Amino acid sequence: MGAFLLIARFALAAVFAVAGAAKLADPAGSRKSMVAFGAPALLAGPLAWLLPLAELACAIALIPAAWAAWGANGALALLALFTAGIGVSLARGRRPDCHCFGQLHSSPIGWKTVARNGALGAIAAVIVWQGPGPGALEWWAGLDRFETAALAFGTALAALAVFGLWTLVHLLRQNGRLLLRLEAVEAKLGIDPSAKQPMPLQGLPVNSAAPAFSLSDLDGGTVTLDLLREPGKPLLLVFSEPGCGACEELLPQLAGWQREHAGRLAIVPISRGEAEVNRAKSEKHQLRNMLLQKDRETSEAYMATGTPSAVLITDGRIASPVALGSDAIRALVARAVLPPPVKQGDPAPALQLPDLDGRTVDLTTLKGRRTLLLFWNPSCGFCQKMLPDVKTWERNRPKDAPELLVISAGSSEANREQGFRARVLLDPDFGAGQVFTATGTPSAVILDEEGRVASGVGVGAEAVLALAGANPSGNGRPG
């Protein structure tokens, strides 16, 4: 028991020493953490120094046996204080960074943080309960040769770990300085690092001739590209592999799309392998029109290098780059089945979009009063510049002003943060914007009481606010 108590004291001392020293090395981060946990800003500065000093005092007191009881009691009190603060924050739904080990490690609090503090508190409680145990020199004198060698080996490993940690911290600081220099260079050159870089397009050039093929269906018949073509109706070829897990997960969706979009899009899965195996999959998911290639001759002809992947063909010509992965295929299908573009005087198209709560809204049901369709993107800088004007207009909207309906890209969480009072529909691929011929965000169009397009597309903050009947401040231009 004496050896356990000694090791427990030294381990607890090491944890508190590292935590205290790391906080002292980052006082600004410690102050920020104090404020995030609810400490008054006036007290955050002094607390950012007092707390690590208290941790270091506990660490020092835990080393000699004569002071260890004081150190353990102090550590137990600090851990109880930390755990109470974390519990209050979690109960209020807040998860600030704990900043427990300064710049060495800082992450949002959670129940894992509570559990870690509980484990450390249990160690401190055992020391308080059982006593501090022997002093280090007294314990060392009682070791035999084997125990001395084992201790020396363990100490060497611990020293190596500390050296590795120090090296890692040093490298991270070096990396931080390099990142700061890189940011300065990017700012000087006008480079936006947050902007998404375009991915290289895969597949054959759009509008080039689609390669002809002749493949077997599941009944042994022969199907060619010419037989699959229908004038004016797009054809989607979907390439899959027998052992591809993502392909297996996509099959039920393919069958659903075949039924849902039968009148607007022909979907043809192309797989490999034994006909019996593929027939079983086709029957299981009620999938139609599955074709078999012998190896990968057809997918290679279309330069589809992975699975699942898909390409759109219209009137015998390539109509899209290769979409690789389930999400990209889903987006390609959504674009392929969009209604034709509308113009002023046309009725609103049959587009169904989910709101932030997952309920579907059909644009053909927007009748009874004038509606301003606002095409939005939370990541668009021009949208953010005009957001205060939109919110002001919402709060003071005249009775004769149109009702606002936001059609936005981005996630539901990002759109909730925008704080619109109006209903928000999600359109991640900007499909509705394409149908209404909007070329960017922010932009808007008016629907009249009968659900018909009653205006041209207003692009930019000034034009959007003019359609709304507000006084534009000119904060944004099209994005």
How far apart the termini lie comes to 69 Å
- Average residue pLDDT: 83
Q: Biggest sheet, in brief? A: 8 strands, mixed
Rg over alpha carbons: 33 Å
Q: Low-confidence parts, pLDDT < 50 over ≥5 residues? A: 472-479
Count the DSSP helices: 16
The portion of residues assigned to helices is 40-55%
> SS-based structural class?
alpha/beta
- Tally of DSSP β-strands: 15
Strand content: 5-15%
Overall 3D form: extended
Structural descriptors:
alpha/beta, eight-stranded mixed β-sheet, 16 helices, 48% helix, extended
Task: Give an overview of the whole structure.
The protein is of the alpha/beta class and about 475 residues long. It has 16 helices and 15 strands. The protein has helices at about 1-25, 25-35, 40-60, 70-90, 110-130, 135-140, 145-190, 225-230, 245-260, 275-285, 295-300, 325-335, 380-395, 410-415, 430-435, 460-470, and strands spanning about 215, 220-225, 235-240, 265-270, 290, 310-315, 315-320, 325, 350-355, 360, 370-375, 405-410, 425, 445, 460. Strands 1, 2, 3, 4, 5, 6, 7 and 8 form an 8-stranded mixed beta sheet that branches. Strands 13-12-11-14-15 form a 5-stranded mixed beta sheet, with helices on one face. Helix 1 (about 1-25) packs antiparallel against helix 3 (about 40-60), helix 2 crosses helix 3 and helix 3 packs antiparallel against helix 4. The longest helix has about 45 residues, at about 145-190. It is extended. Mean pLDDT is about 85; it is low at about 470-479.
